[in-house]
Design brief:
Carbamate kinase; 9 helices; two-stranded antiparallel ribbon; alpha/beta
């Protein structure tokens, strides 16, 4: 454990990442790959919590923009995260990783209700805990849920998994001149309107001095390098 930079981490994965090359739905290959990456970190003795989005199944804000009631649309998005969380649980347990799913929306037949002390107990017993259902409230994203749950369970960092290797001045897929940031302050993220996490999540992390690392989850071994303290992706802190 002396060579590890963290003991307890929060991993935030977007729903879109689970779709892989598909426009929507779950890619079993991607889910399995992420589960393998988590297992490698789990084997090091790291306590891992996860928050998974639901954008690969339903996006509440897009539905709201098309005229659906915002609260109803957000609740539908929360339910989508539960589907993704169960898929990830299944993939992890196939690899021998003891896992629990806790939902902010009560559905006892498929997931535990979110209870902070129970989540802490699971982590102490060496179980991966997957938080689904967002915060349980409309108008809040799963980014905010990740920041909130991370602080509630005493995690040391939020690892924001993306499809690129950090934060850039522009989308590197569209702008070849885009430059990568190795480190940013919270204020810089907010003032530049960089797409790291939503502004509520960034503000919550800033108010509590909570670091965020944005990295490419699809690069094999990147999560393991992060927990060993290597510089990977973009670090957001301070300021």
């Amino acid at each position: 454990m002396a060579s590890l930079a963290y003991k307890r981490v929060m991993l935030k994965i977007s729903g879109e990442a689970l779709a892989g090359t598909q426009e929507y739905g779950l890619s079993t290959d991607v889910v399995s790959f992420i589960a393998e990456e988590v297992r490698e970190v789990y084997r090091l003795g790291i306590q891992v919590a996860m928050v998974i989005g639901g954008g690969n199944i339903f996006r509440g804000m897009e539905a709201s923009a098309r005229g659906m009631d915002r609260a109803s649309a957000d609740y539908m998005g929360m339910l989508a995260t539960c589907i993704n969380g169960l898929a990830m649980q299944s993939a992890l347990e196939k690899l021998g990783v003891d896992t629990r799913v806790q939902s902010a929306i009560e559905m006892r037949e498929v997931a535990e209700p979110f209870i902070r002390r129970r989540a802490l107990r699971h982590l102490d017993k060496g179980r991966v805990v997957i938080f689904v259902g967002g915060t349980g409230n409309p108008y809040f994203t799963t980014d905010t849920a990740a920041a909130l749950r991370a602080m509630e369970i005493g995690a040391e960092v939020v690892f924001k998994a993306t499809k690129v290797d950090g934060v850039y001045t522009a989308d590197p897929k569209l702008d070849p001149t885009a430059q990568k940031f190795d480190e940013l302050t919270y204020i810089e993220v907010l003032s530049r309107r960089l797409k790291v996490m939503d502004s509520t999540a960034i503000s919550l992390c800033m108010d509590n001095g909570f670091p965020i690392v944005v990295f490419n989850m699809h690069e094999r071994g990147s999560l393991g390098r992060l927990v060993r303290g290597e510089r990977v992706g973009t670090l957001v802190r301070g300021g």
